[in-house]
Model the fold of this input.
Amino acid sequence: MQLTVIVPTLNEAAYLVGALDSISKSVEIIVSDGGSVDETVAISARFGARVVTGNQGRAQQMNRGAKAATGEVLLFLHADCLLAPQATDAIEAALADDDVVGGSFRMKVRDGSRALRWIAATANARARYLKTPYGDQALFVRRRVFEELGGFPEMPFMEDVAFVRALKRRGKIVCLRETVTTGVRHWQRLGPVSTTILNWSMVTLYLLGVPAERLEPHYRRWRRADATSKSEKAYSSS
Done:
């Protein structure tokens, strides 16, 4: 199995070393950068990653990385996430079942409080039983299926929710026992409870038919993103 790991970035120097170091050296790594002005590109080159650049926006960047990939399987990893050492072998084993079109990993929050451990547990239950993982659980997909679906919808956010909904209609989605460990930055601004309520509210409204373009300004307002947190503003999970 040929695997390509795609990491969308925007000023991720503070986190990227850990993410890249967690990826098996036997796989192709593509960093899809949205115009970083810190050491993100230099760090990527140091790890032997191929860097593609262009307009910022996570969906656009992940699609751009996918176009540059050579692997038959694509894995999309957030820059503050760490893959388990057994990730590649676990994906290969899962995809031995021809009915499986993609999946995700069991999420673990690094240095998480009790509230964050509960949030991770609910995310894992959602992925396992409802077959709806989100981007911070490191989505992987057969490249053929990804291309047939047209990649991620190029929306301001919710691209992972929309993509997984389409993916579910194409075949089986699995949640692997192996972990992806995510950082705590997404929950720091509002706190775990308020962030979770905001996320669930946005997803619910989107699933009820409210366009992501209408929801996004309200999401950003509640997140109170400012110029000093440009990376968080562009890459907050849905």
Notes: Residues 23 and 232 are 22 Å apart (CA to CA). The chain has one domain: 3-186.
